Amino acid sequence: MFTQTKSRVRTFLAAATLAIGAVAAATPALASGDVVHIERQKWSFSGAFGTYDKAQLQRGFKVYKEVCSACHGMGLVSFRNLVQSGGPEFSEAQVKALIKEAGYETLDGPNDQGEMFKRPSRLSDRLPSPFPNPEAARAANNGAYPPDFSMIAKARAVAGSYPGSFLVDGLTLYAEHGPDYIYNLITGYKDAPKGHECADGLNYNDKFLSGTCIAMAAPISDDQVTYEDGSKQTVDQYARDVSAFLNWAAEPKLNERKQIGFLTLLFLTVLAGLLYLTTRKLWSGIKH
Amino acid sequence: MATTNSAEPTRRDFLYIATAATGAVGAGFAAWPFIHQMNPDASALALSTTEVDISAIQPGQIVTVKFRGKAMFVRRRTKGEIDAARKDDTAALPDPAKDADRVKPGKDEWLIVSGVCTHLGCTPVGTAGGRGDFDGWFCPCHGSHYDTSGRIRKGPAPLNLPVPEYQFTSDTVVLITDLKNA
Amino acid sequence: MAGHSTYQPQNAIAKWLERRLPIISMMHGQAVAFPTPRNLNYFWTFGAIAMFMLITMILTGIVLVMHYTPHTSLAFNSVEHIMRDVNYGWLIRNLHQNGASLFFIAVYMHILRGLYFGSYKEPREVLWILGVLIFLLMMATAFMGYVLPWGQMSFWGATVITNLFSAFPIVGDPVVSWLWGGFSVDNPTLNRFFALHYLLPFMILGVVVLHIWALHVSGNGNPTGVEVKSEQDTLPFHPYYTIKDLFAVAVFFIFFLIFVFYMPMFFNHPDNNIEANPLVTPAHIVPEWYFLPFYAILRAVPDKLGGVLAMFGAIAVMFILPWLDTSKIRSMTYRPIAKVFFWLFVVACVALGYLGAAPAEGLYVVFSRIFMAIYFGYFVFLFVIGLVEKPKPLPNSITESVLS
User: Fold this and answer.
1) What is the mean pLDDT of residues A110-122?
2) How much of chain C exceeds pLDDT 90, in percent?
3) Does some domain include residue B120?
4) What's the ipTM?
5) To the nearest whole angstrom, how far is the Cα of A278 from the nearest Cα of chain C?
6) Are residues B113 and B23 located together in one domain of the fold?
7) Residue A276: how many CB atoms within 10 A of its CB?
8) How many beta carbons lie within 10 A of that of residue B63, not counting itself?
């Protein structure tokens, strides 16, 4: 019975592979037509045991604060999140100093006179957005909306360049499409090749998901942000750090998730093993 | 069934017990996230302090502010109210406490107490004329009377209105930071 | 089949209860002593696996409702609140979100097993029809659940799928605005989908009870397709199949939790991490993977109404399958020709799934039509081949096949 089951599983897998293979092989031109090619990067948080690099997240936050936050909000992240474990893990005092130094203010109210007022941000407040609403953001940016960055690392992804790549991604636990894309985009600015020039106000970037012309100009240049820990002050390093930081903003529980995940799977494997032995013992001597 | 081969059943029983025990432990651990999710979440815990601007409060006035979703009374007491509270330090109190221990030293004027009746959680009334027999607060739900120190004097409530942990961050701003069981 | 209980109440309380509500002896008869064919293989464990997935979905779902807000301006953020602030909220949400996909995997395996081993044939027609009903309810539930996070895919998926009904002449447009409760997918739509998404799982649970009831009237099928003839052919359900099923459930959960803990976004579409925006449609609208074969059929037909009918027909045909298959032989193991076509049918389903995610243009559409023809052709074929096919010799009994 068991061999029969095995052979059926094999037939099933073969059938599935055949199906995907047949379609894929017959349509290579269509499948890889205009897909953006994204170079995959190494991340400290990839794989089953990957966790965030605290120092990198702190640098990434600095880049976000000094460069990106001029246009991009981060409305789902609170100052207290910068303190919690599994993140940049600034101390409470550091974040309070940072609020004071950067002059972050949060809209509160109404007060006793019935008016809304601004007051210095507290740890429990969200990071203030640069624009009061999307319309204002559009108006200030030639009609192009600078998206909120809270979820951006999960909201952008480019699939692999071959059909069925999702299966390989699954088998290799690859889940870093988002930061890969952000890194590629930031470092992807170059002069437009002949015949691909962009209209005024747009910039050539062949990593951009929706066409090769993007409204955002190259956002950062070498030595623009000062690193205190001696890391390289290059666009490449900035892009890497801010991508990692944005991934944390979108997946703040990643460290905890993988840690609990490992223990849970370990436990479940033991339980499955015991159940297997029990099943075998129980069925021994019974032909089935 | 166990008489013919004594070694076999023991091993088999051990395996069954080990499997069942492991499964039970797993079920126990799996239950925890489903229970813990109902506890206050990170955003609720982060909102747990309240700042009160007291500059506009007149003598004799009671202001009700929200602290962790519930009422907190800030009362600027008149001279007469303070004296009444001090005089009753020696009266027969259901929950004995000295008035001086319920305010900050040198800030006798300012009484800050929880606005939750210690009986069953209603918010006592402090509007002028409705402050009960002891000129403090009167709880309309079951008729508890509190005095000008927030102490229970009459009615079913067992305890005084608790004093939260707070500090004067300046002469005009009070920061309420904690309240046991609130 | 049922009522094989050997249960005798032992103590006074049990005896007292037995005379008033014989629930213990009923459960003993149905879940302990129930005679089950001894030759079931691991494909038969997917029923138990699906049951565990249903329970997981209901438990995590009830928890999520404690923190979720069904309002267009709050829904997206309330889901992120669960992911970021609620204690273990990320875990419970990931379990629910990925659980939907894994539930469908289990159910698809369960259905394929039924198709291969002829589990739909006399006397199990009602059992099968109840199963198809569960599948339909699952699809409705999954679709409405996908709308709740109010991301871009939620919104545009809801728009596209509800618009399917506009294909029907005369009643189409009124039905669509009735579904929406307005002139577009909006807050009333979100609210009613939320209400129904909470209700339908309990209806599924109810139909599952009927499904199991029907199963316990006819008894399990088995890989030979030969009915149980003597007690020798069976084993009591407990402990033989309870333990075996639990082992399979544990293995399946390892598979499930790998997604939950390491690739929680694997089945999700990145666009659904952008809050719904009625003014911007994402570049590629794709339904969840478990709908893709049906979506491919929808797009394979050039006519709007025709596509909708073909898609519904792909499910509807399952209801009448017991009467389409004319062969008396249940198991494909003994049907050399039909077996080949069964695997061809599986290939068509997988291929349609792939094509459902591809753009609806050029060769993709051509392939969709070919595989759609195979999908529907399978049912026609079963009707014809059953009349002419010469099956391999069947064993006389389950015991004989096991001992040989």
Assistant:
1) 86
2) 94
3) yes
4) 0.93
5) 7
6) no
7) 17
8) 18
